[in-house]
Amino acid sequence: MDSRSRIRLGVVACLVLAMVPLTSTGPAAARGTAPAVKKDVAHDLSAPLRSIPPSVTARSGARQVPLLQPSPASTGAQEDTRVLDPVVQTSAPTAQMPSTTTSFDGIGATGMLPPDSNSDVGPDHIVEIVNAQYQVFDKSGASLLGPANIQTLWTGFGGTGCAATNNGDPVVLYDAAADRWVISQMSLPARPNPPFYQCLAVSQTGDPTGAWHRYEFDMGSSFNDYSKLGVWGDGYYMTDNEFDSSDNYLGAGVWAFERSEMLSGLSAQSLHFSLSSADVSSSLLPGDIDGPTAPPAGAPNPIVGFEDSAPFNHHVKVWDFHADWAVPANSTLTGPTDIAAASFDANLCGHSVNCIPQPDAAPGLDALSGFMMYRLAYRNFGAYQSLLMNFTVDAGGGTDRAGIRWTELRKSAGTWSIAQQGTYAPDSDNRWMGSVAQDQNGNIALGYSVSSATTYPSIRYAGRLANDPPGALSQAETTLQAGSGSQTSPSGRWGDYTSMQVDPSDDCTFWYTNQYYSSNSDRSWNTRIGSFKFPNCGAPSTTIVGTLTGGYRTAAVYALYHLRSEAVYEMTVAPNLSGEPVSVELWRLPTRSSLWRYRTTINGILSPGSTFTVTMPGKSWGKGKYRVRGSFAGNSSYLGSDAPWSYFAFTR
After folding, report:
1. Which of 109, 341, 483, 596 is the most buried (most CB within 10 A)?
2. Are residues 185 and 132 in the same domain?
3. Structural domain tally of the chain?
4. Residue 165: what are its φ and ψ, rounded to 5°?
5. d(CA 470, CA 152)
6. CA-CA distance, 351 to 90, in Å (whole number)?
7. Would you call the peptide bond into 296 cis, given omega within 30 degrees of 0 as the criterion?
8. Cα distance between residue 635 and residue 580, in whole Å
9. pLDDT at residue 345 above 80?
């Protein structure tokens, strides 16, 4: 991240003595312009990443982000010390969050401020990315690859910017439906002048140390700051803050990249809508899928921000982005739908970068209170869809004490509405830089930084069970990593974001990544990665019952139930196949991803006509289409490797 401006999105707060009714004002008219459509500048397939010599060359001096702030007139930025937050949680609950099960240090200081620390988790790997390096770990924290400069991934690439620059704002995501990894960072070869690029890479397989499909996209004449990515069924969606070459704020960019082509390494299109500075009053985020259940067919990607621009004008704003890859000109960005929210003050310290206090009289830290905090976690529960968002607010009624406003939006039909909201500020410490997600049961976990004049910047998390009272994090916070030093840089740069992810292997385990200091330092930060799980996550075992008949290549499924954390497949042994090892295989459709496959073998003599069961644990298989088959080794003429599949679907 060589040089990046930071948008300051101000507010005029208002005095509110009671909660604003949580009703939608209805969607605004659709934008009348068609999207800008472009093909990638270049794309190719890399060598296996494990075979590329890692670039970890030292940077030419310490670097930090210059902060350019729009004038108050352009954003309505006037701090109001009178606002009262009616949903602030001011006391700590007695129930305790689960302790961490795994915790280890990630990538250390790279000379950059801020680190932009984030990671994601797959079946076997954790990939962390910061400004401007990546590293691959196994789930015990052992390093498998790196750390190396992100630019290493584009070694030998034929584009204009991605192979030559290492500018940062990185994001890594695991695309569970495809069993692929996605990495993104910006490229600014002539900053502050164009061209500006976005570098995206999609792993060829589920192994992040293998080969990657690499892409470079032209972002036009606007500087693509604070780019954030989300995985959706029909695209990789992205938002950014856009500036001209004089660092004047222009508004927000909303992008979609052609996922289907990128998964195959083919030339891919991008779609781009621009929202002017008059259209938005915060940064925006795209929806990012958690869990095995895809959004409804044809569902647009939700683009979400918030508004705090005038008295009695506190809203969550939702746009719908529909990408039409067959006829790109037919793609639409509609909205926003304005959803009235409980009053909040999203202006801390007049947007000063030295806002959050630290011990030892160190300079204050940046609260980034005008920003949506990464991610916008989407989950489809079947009966309803859910989005989790968070941003930093003044929880002290004008005292500039940072708290985290978290909100759950739901939609069962029609438009999105607020299901619950709260501001987490249980004591006098400051909490900010949040990231929030939920597991398959609807339990919510929020991770964040915490600091005060007596508390070194530390990493903590809090949460709630699905049946806890709405609007409260009723499970008291736990410390993932206690800091023992302050950041002494006068820049105040902290964050700019963190990541809370859910492990797709069980759809229960949370993994959180954030930064801390072990001693007072200008920029010798550390990152910490930790996991935890609510003990109630996961459903009771259920059963798939079937029979292998002993005829010719048949496998009938007799009874099917909603499969969650465990399945049992019961088969009857045919007389002419007894005594052979039995193999059972289950796949989730449509992908043949290893994430959604389970295989096992039973050895031993089985009497003709006897039954046996195969337990398939450790997955949140969920509602969807599946196929299953059984086979007897050495009997391919009966049920061997070419045996037909039995297809079925879970609808509950």
Report:
1. 483
2. yes
3. 2
4. -130, 165
5. 46
6. 23
7. no
8. 8
9. yes
In a domain, 32, yes or no: yes
The residue assigned the tokens 């990315």 is 129
Inside any domain, residue 539: no
Comparing 143-157, 265-279, 421-435, 571-585, the range with the smallest average pLDDT is 571-585
Question: Residue written as tokens 């795994």?
Answer: 102
- Give me the domain span that covers residue 281: 24-532
Q: Are residues 409 and 454 in the same domain?
A: yes
List, in order, residues 6 or more apart from 142 with CB less than 8 Å away: none
531 close to 439: Cβ distance less than 8 angstroms? no
What span, in angstroms and rounded, lies between the C-alpha atoms of 354 and 366?
A: 5
- Counting Cβ atoms within 10 Å, is residue 397 exposed (0-12), middle (13-18) or buried (19+)? middle
404: nearest Cα among 472, 455, 475: 472
Q: Among 532, 560, 588, which residue terminates a domain? A: 532
Its pTM stands at 0.81
Question: What dihedral angle (degrees, nearest 10) is formed by the CA atoms of 409, 410, 411, 414?
Answer: -50
pLDDT attached to residue 80: 57
- Going by C-alpha positions, the residue among 376, 372, 75 that lies closest to residue 251 is 75
Is 7 contained in some domain?
no
DSSP string spanning 199-237?
A: EEEEESSS-TTS-EEEEEEE-TTSEEEEEEEEEETTEEE
Share of the chain above pLDDT 70, in %: 73
The residues pairing with 559 across neighbouring beta strands, listed in sequence order, are 545
Q: What does each C-alpha distance from 238 to 243, 285, 501, 589 come to in angstroms?
A: 16, 7, 18, 26
- State the burial class of residue 137 (Cβ atoms within 10 Å of its Cβ: 0-12, 13-18, 19+): buried
C-alpha 414/C-alpha 601 separation (Å) is 47
> Are 165 and 188 spatial neighbours (Cβ–Cβ below 8 Å)?
yes
Cα–Cα distance measured from residue 364 to residue 59, given in angstroms and rounded to the nearest whole number: 26
Q: Is 312 left (phi over 0), alpha (psi -120 to 50) or beta?
A: left
Question: How far is it, in rounded angstroms, from Cα 346 to Cα 340?
Answer: 15
- Same-domain status, 268 and 380: yes
Residue 109 maps to a domain: yes
Asked if 129 and 121 count as a contact pair (C-beta separation under 8 A), the reply is no
Instruction: Give the amino acid at 615.
Output: T
Q: What's the pLDDT score for residue 82?
A: 60
Q: What is the Cα–Cα distance from 98 to 96, expressed in whole angstroms? A: 6
